[in-house]
Each structure stands twice: as C-alpha cells, then as structure tokens.
Amino acid sequence: MKAATSFLAVLALAAPLSSCAPSFDTPPDLQPLLQAYAQPTAVVGEQIMSEWADEIAKAAEEIQDSEIFEEILQVIIDVQLELDAATVKTCSGGAMNGSDCSADADCPDGTCVSTGDVVLGEICDAGTNKGNDCVDDADCPGGTCGGGVVVPTPTGQIQVNYICPGWDESQFDPGYEAEPDPANGTINLTMTLDSGGIGRVVWGTADNCLYLVPTGGENFQASYDGGIALDLGDSVSPSEDITRLIVTFLLEGDIGFDGDPYRINQSFRVRLENTAFLVILVDVGDPALSKTFNYVFAVTPAQCVRDVNAPPESPCTFGCSLEESRCFDKDGNTLFFW
Amino acid sequence: MFRQRRQHALLLVAALLLAGLTSAGMGLHPSSARAYHTYEERLLDTTAYSLQRRRVRLGLMNLSYGILDQLQVTTYTMPWLLGMIFQTVAPNLELKSTFYDRKRLALSVSAGFLTGTIQQTDDSRVRYFLMPIAFAASVRINSDVSVHLGTRFTAVTGGADAQSGGDQIEGALVIDFMQLYAMAEWRLSRVVAFTFTLRWVPYVSDAVVNGSLSGTNPTADLRLAVNTEDLKNAFAVVPGFVFSWERANIRLGVGYSSFFVDGFYLVLPGDVLHNISPEFDVFVRF
Predict the structure, then answer these.
(1) Which residues of chain A neighbour B225 with C-beta distances below 8 Å?
(2) CA distance A238 to chain B (A)
(3) CATH number of the CATH domain containing B59
(4) Would the pTM of this model clear 0.80, i.e. be above it?
(5) pLDDT digits 0-9 by tens, A234-244
(6) pLDDT tens digits, residue range B50-90?
(7) Which residues of B245-260 are buried (b: 16+ CB within 10 A; e: fewer)?
(8) Burial class of residue A302, CB neighbours in 10 A (0-12, 13-18, 19+)
(9) Residue A302 vs residue A161, higher pLDDT
(10) A46, A48, A49, A51: CA torsion to nearest 10
C-alpha cells in the first residue's frame, strides 16, 4: 500500500512531462504538381480546347481580376522584410570587416552581408527608447541595441497571421492608420525556415479575407475564403526579391470579385513584377494530374499552349487565342478552331 | 585528429590510474571498521534504493529525507548555492519511490523539477525549467556485488525575457533528452565500495526556440530548431569509490568524456572539461 502511494506521488509529479515534445508541421507535397508543369502529358487539339476554353478563360479572369495571389505574396514579402531585419549582418571587407551592420553604408569599402543567424528580442538598453524593440543602434537614441537570443542559421517554421485590410476605401488615403479589424478576415500561413532562408513551400488558409483591388481608378471589392499552397521555386534568402520569382499556386476555395462568387480549385503560376504573366495548369485527366497541359498568358505569342509535344526548352507547343477560338503555329497559320 | 585521440587516451589512463591508486590506498584501511556498507545501507545515487522512513542524508551535493520506507524526497544543493551566488536561487525537488524491493531486485521511479533564472542584463534574463523522470533497477548479485541500471528522461523548457514594460516574452527554448546509465558496485570492504559507472545519451531532441518577429500585421511566430548534434551519443565512463563510515560518507571518481552535472540533470560535452568527468560528494546519513 505504501509502495503504491509513493509510486503515485512520483507519477503525479511527472505528469506534466507528457506535453513537452516539440514538433513541426509537414508541408504539403507539391512535387506532383510541379512535375505536371514541367512535363505536361496531354495532347491538345480541337476537342480538348472546345471543352476547356471557357473554363480557362473564366479562371484566368478571376485570378487576374481578384489579384488574390498579390494579396498572399505581399504577406510573405512583409514577413520576409521582418526576417531580414532580424538577421544578423556583418561587414565583409573594408575597414569595418567583421563588425555588425544593417546596410552597406555601415561598411566603408565593404558590403553588409547576412550571416544567416537570427536574433530575437533585441531591445534598447538606454535612451529615449529604453526597453523597446530595436534592430540596430539607430533605433536607440542615447543607447545601444542589444540582448536578445541569437539562433545560429536556424531551421524551423513561421506561423503567420495577417488581418486583411477590408473594404474601407479610406485605407488608400494618405496617412491612413487604423487598428486591423479581425472582422475583415485573416490569412494564416505556415512558412518553413531552412538555414535562415524561407523554404520554397508556403501553405495555409484564408478565412473570408476581404480586400480592395484598385483598377483603373476604381476600387473593386474582393475576397477569398479557402486553402492556399504555393511553391516559390527554391529557398529564398531574406534579402531576395520575391517579386521576380515565378510562383506556383494551388488554391481551393471561393473567390469573390465585385459581388460575383467563383469556386476555384486550380493551380496557376504568376510573377508579381509582371501581373500579366499567368500560366494555368489544365488537368483534363482522371485521376487528377494524369493528363495535363499548360495554358500560358503574356508570352510571345500573347497566349499559347504547352502540351506533351512541346519542344525542349520551349515555353509553348503552339499559340492560341481564347478570343478568336483558334490555335495557330509560329507563322500565325491556324491549326484548328473550336 | 591523432593528437586529440592520444590526448583522450592519456586522460582515460590517468583517470584509471587515479582510481586504482585510490583503491589501493583504501585497501590499507582495516576492514574491521564499523559496518557501513550493509544490507540496509545502500547507495542511493544511480541506484533504485531510497532512504528508509525518517532517515536523513545531508550532503554537499544533495539533501534527502525518507518520508516513507519507499518514498524519499531530495533537493540538490548546487542549484541553490550557485543560484545564491548569481542572485537568484534555483528551487528543485525530486521524489523517488522504491516501489518494489524483494529478494535481490529493487525497482524505483523518480520525478522532480528544477527551475531558475539567469540574469543577463538589467533588462533581460533567461528562465529555465527542467523536469526529470527516471526509472531504475538494482540487482544484488551477492552480498558484495550489485548492478544498477536506469534511464532518465529530462524535459527542458526555457525562455528569455526581454523586459519591455516588464513582461514581454521574446524567446523560449524546448529540448528533451534521455540518458541511460549502468553502475556496477563491488563492496571491497565494509568501508570501501568500488563503483564503475557508464552513462550514455542516446537521444536528444533538437532544441526548439520559440519567438516572434516584431511586426504587428502580419504577426509572425517563429519556431526554430537548433542543432544539438554535439550532445547526441554523449557518454561517460567513471570509475570511483564510495567510502562509508559510521555516519560520514565520501563518493569520488574521475572518468572520461562528457560531464553529467549532478543536480542540474544536464550534460556538458567532453570538450568543455577536456574529457574529464568528475564525481564527488560528501554526506552524512542518520
């Protein structure tokens, strides 16, 4: 009896241990999708185009009009900037070689380069901003920026929570500042960190995210509610320009634009610095991804198809025009109508 | 590389020689000293045994009291002492239950906690909280020889407080590790017992640091993994002796490789102390 009592007393003390093991979420596997872009398997002809042209046009219109990809990528860019600010940088070369820096201007005759280490929780030790967050000494008039926890070349995950801007048109007014309102919906993303850089796959959800799309002097009400997965092509360093990357998206949810709902379950590719560029992955097979081709917007010619017969290194097999309901060869000769 | 290996080998030989010389010296002591390593009086550290009811052990390294015959409470002194030196004490407590002790076999389970803070600057400090849980088995092969086996799992959580307004948590650390140990005990006389202890860390989780970036919208919570490769497969081989008189006891040994820090439940990689793994305690039992 005494033994049982003492045993239970020890177990009671040990009970809180059960919650201690750390774990990381596993990113979705986008490799089959990327493979479908790289190696399309469908042979595109009149029948396929007649069957899928309207759907391609509608998807392209909704994606480009709603600019949902831009809303999501901007969140990632904002986090990237924060991460860059938290990255330890030192001068490479010059008189200040090896010293901490925040920009090339701090390194005469040298450059300010990232070490890959991340420092969390630096604060001003004195001065007018004593106790406040800081990135470097410039943030601490009368004091120095220090302390914090340095994590050498970290790997791990970032949980991102973004409160959407909503439909209030005054958000574009100069000097507009308002507390983010959760009623405008959220975007929740998970990003991975690999040796200090952002991992190529980002995933998460948008919960009825409301935002405005300014187009031609008019602001259109847009929304997205659903799943998000995207591939940045490769790991991205904190200082790399994401707008130049070709990003592969997979969205499954509801897009709203100017009052019209649209159900999307679609993968596409965009490049933020050229929003006219769009590649739609058309999946005509069953099971999924067994027969695919790419429909490409904003290349030369303006639209084209890349199918199983695409020449190596070529973005297109032949040109097409959704408006004219025809596809054509490189000389403009019509291959087929639908 | 060769030079380093030779240095490690020399250290091991030196540790074994020291242990051997100490053993020889103790062998000169008369074995007719009053009984101290007895059937009732068992080693408590690295074994499944615990103090009997209302028995007390006061030592340099720990203080223990037998609440019941099968239940002992211990607090390690070093965390308190070092804590006082560094301005903040480190409360710690461990309960050990010898829930089975029949014939030649004894089994125990123990659990505890250790918590404290380390002040880094006026505005930042590091907090830590350790929870060890251990299971041990002791087998009395004969009246002179015993073998003790055990495993200890320790969960460590910690955090760095950067006191912006006094309460802003800026980072947190999580790491779990498991230690296996085995000790052979050979009672050379009624006063002297030779011990040979092996310790090994087969599992260490990656350390996870939780923190956040300073942006307000979006907010970004980080969970970062820190490589703990240096601690994986850490081990120590420690020959030593326990001298036991009427009340006073001394435990000492010098071993090779990593240092398993008594009371803090932690492991210092071998490089930190040049692969010297000490073991020392002085205590009285009554």
Answers:
(1) 22, 24, 154-156
(2) 13
(3) 2.40.160.40
(4) no
(5) 999 888 999 99
(6) 998 989 999 999 999 999 888 999 999 988 888 777 667 78
(7) eeeebebbbbbbbbbb
(8) middle
(9) A161
(10) 120
The percent helix, strand, coil of chain B (3-state, each to 5) is: 15, 55, 30
Phi, psi of A7 (to 5 degrees): -60, -45
**A83: closest chain B residue by CA:** B213
| Euclidean distance between CA atoms A230 and A253, whole angstroms | 14
Q: How confident is the model at residue A29 (pLDDT cuts 50, 70, 90)?
A: very high
- Domain encompassing residue B99: 2-285
CB B139 within 8 A of CB B163: no
3-state secondary structure A135-186: CCHHHCCCCCEECCEEECCCEEEEEEEEECCCCCHHHHCCCCCCCCCHHHCE
CA distance A304 to chain B (A): 37
Closest Cα in chain A to B131: A17
- Helix (H) or strand (E) holding A329, with range, is none
The answer on pLDDT for A205 being more than 70 is: yes
pLDDT band (50, 70, 90) for residue A4: low
The minimal CB distance from A121 to the residues B67, B111, B170 is found for B170
- Mean pLDDT, residues A245-261 taken together: 96
Query: In angstroms, how far apart are the furthest CA atoms of chain A?
Result: 95
Tokens 């400090």 — which residue? Answer: B125
Task: Tell me how many domains chain B contains.
Answer: 1
Give the model's pLDDT for residue A123: 72
CA distances from A84 to A78, A88, A190 (A): 10, 8, 17
> For residue A36, what pLDDT is reported?
96
Q: Which of B51, B53, B113, B123 to mutate to test the interface with A (most CBs of A within 10 A)?
A: B123
Supply the ipTM of this predicted assembly.
Answer: 0.82
- Give the bridge partners for B235, in sequence order: B200
